[in-house]
Amino acid sequence: MKPVKLFYLKNCPFCRKALRYIEEAKAAHPELQPVAIEMIEESEQSDLADTFDYYYVPTFYVDGVKVHEGGIYAEEVEKILRSALE
């Protein structure tokens, strides 16, 4: 399974949606349950966040490759989780 990183901010409404979509996707699709996501709160781990190339949150990386940045929809989250299984 490929590693997934999620950069987010606690107060970001798009990030809260992304987190909800992750929960919903895992609940609806049991095969996605094992996908582990390293959660990186940008303001609390700024040194780590600064080593990655992105501007907007939420930002997802799968296997070290940026796959999504900014506002997100439920189907995009599911696609990201599935890509970690490939």
Task: Give an account of the 3D structure.
The protein has a 4-stranded mixed sheet. The longest helix is centred in the first third of the chain and has 16 residues, at 13-28. It has 86 residues and is an alpha+beta fold. The protein has 3 helices and 4 strands, in the order E-H-E-H-E-E-H. It has one domain: Glutaredoxin, CATH 3.40.30. The mean pLDDT is 97. It has helices at 13-28, 46-49, 74-85; strands at residues 4-8, 37-41, 59-62, 65-69.
Looking at this protein, list some descriptive labels:
single chain, 86 residues, alpha+beta, Glutaredoxin, four-stranded mixed sheet, 3 helices, globular, Thioredoxin, GLR_AS, Thioredoxin-like_sf, Thioredoxin-like_fold
Write the SSE topology:
Blueprint: E1 4-8, H1 13-28, E2 37-41, H2 46-49, E3 59-62, E4 65-69, H3 74-85
Parallel strand pairs: 1-2
Antiparallel strand pairs: 1-3, 3-4
Helix pairs in contact: 1-3
Number of domains: 1
Q: Give the name of the CATH architecture.
A: 3-Layer(aba) Sandwich
The largest sheet is: 4 strands, mixed
Please identify the structural class as seen in this structure.
Answer: alpha+beta
Number of helices: 3
Report a brief summary of the structure.
By secondary structure, the protein is an alpha+beta fold. Helices cover 37% and strands 22% of the residues. It has a single domain, classed as 3-Layer(aba) Sandwich (Glutaredoxin), CATH 3.40.30.10.
